[in-house]
């Protein structure tokens, strides 16, 4: 899973602070040889905004990938969620849930969060016969199956950009965590294009992000979030789910603006 020493949690201007990640592999993806792009450009986004979007996608990718370690929970608890909860943004309610969950930390918090994650996102529990595992195949097309058509679609989207899920990670490609990390990777590539003044490639990447979000994330993610929200037992994961929805709504609006 891709995490660095520090990572900003940003829903554009709403989330302003970072949480430090420790003892995690560098990335869930492997790149398979991309040519460097150079020459003349007018950037679509600022470097700052591209960086913020990439970091937010990485944070969400981590939160849905596996249960959090004690170090990660402690690092999250050190952040200023209270001020984020009071700033009136679309993410304020989500940040309030996270803040109130983490301020009540005790010796059982990590285990409680792990149990909640396992029950909901690993599919140990069901609601009306459905699990809230974060796989597109469970919600798209006819749903109710792992490794469905949506998995193939995600695989080919990754492959088209010379990216694949890293060896040793035995999870289908249409996991939401992988989709979020793919979007983060595209933000980072667009940032490189801005640095290299490669306008055409930056525009292609932004267009790809918009298409990927519209076709492979938006059609199912709200159903997943609604189901997961009805199942989670902890206020922390209620906040995570709300934060995901707020960020994706903002992403949709942002990508529509740039066409």
Automatic annotation (TrEMBL):
<dbReference type="Pfam" id="PF02613">
    <property type="entry name" value="Nitrate_red_del"/>
</dbReference>
<dbReference type="InterPro" id="IPR020945">
    <property type="entry name" value="DMSO/NO3_reduct_chaperone"/>
</dbReference>
<dbReference type="InterPro" id="IPR036411">
    <property type="entry name" value="TorD-like_sf"/>
</dbReference>
<dbReference type="InterPro" id="IPR050289">
    <property type="entry name" value="TorD/DmsD_chaperones"/>
</dbReference>
<keyword id="KW-0143">Chaperone</keyword>
<protein>
    <recommendedName>
        <fullName>Molecular chaperone TorD</fullName>
    </recommendedName>
</protein>
